[in-house]
């Protein structure tokens, strides 16, 4: 997999990405995270309607190498969950920034997005 970090997205230090559209945050994990995890075997996501808080755990991702928590990059209400990925988590590696989205969150505190990293900042954090 080619490691990419689209410039139009925002990132967290814990390797989630956010695409912002009209008060909605589409959340996924970066190609770097997927590469580090290896073959993904399990994905746990919150139900639609759950409120998530910025910085708090919202789910779990497991691979043949590790179990990792997923953290909310913003606060809000879960409006959609990518259920197909729960059934076939290995598909995350196919297109992390397209079909690989995990949640759609209706923002309750839009100012939190100002703390997210740019693609350049995220890459610098990775040492690249």
TrEMBL record:
Organism of derivation: Gloeomargarita lithophora Alchichica-D10
Can you name this protein?
Glycine cleavage system H protein
Instruction: Keywords in alphabetical order, please.
Output: Lipoyl
Family annotation (Pfam families): GCV_H
- Modified residues annotated as N6-lipoyllysine in this record: 65
> Which note does the record give on the cofactor?
Binds 1 lipoyl cofactor covalently.
Q: Which gene encodes it?
A: gcvH
Q: Quick one: signal sequence residues?
A: none
Q: Name one GO biological process term.
A: protein lipoylation
Q: Which domain of life is it from?
A: Bacteria
């Amino acid at each position: 997999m080619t490691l990419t970090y689209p410039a139009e997205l925002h990132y967290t230090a814990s390797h989630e990405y956010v695409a912002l559209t009209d008060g909605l945050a589409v959340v996924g994990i970066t190609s770097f995270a997927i590469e580090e995890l290896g073959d993904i075997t399990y994905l746990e996501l919150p139900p639609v309607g759950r409120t998530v808080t910025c910085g708090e755990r919202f789910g779990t991702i497991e691979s043949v190498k590790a179990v990792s928590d997923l953290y909310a990059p913003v606060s809000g209400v879960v409006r959609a969950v990518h259920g197909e990925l729960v059934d076939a988590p290995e598909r995350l590696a196919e297109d992390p920034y397209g079909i690989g989205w995990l949640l759609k969150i209706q923002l309750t505190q839009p100012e939190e997005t100002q703390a997210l990293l740019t693609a350049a900042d995220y890459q610098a954090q990775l040492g690249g």
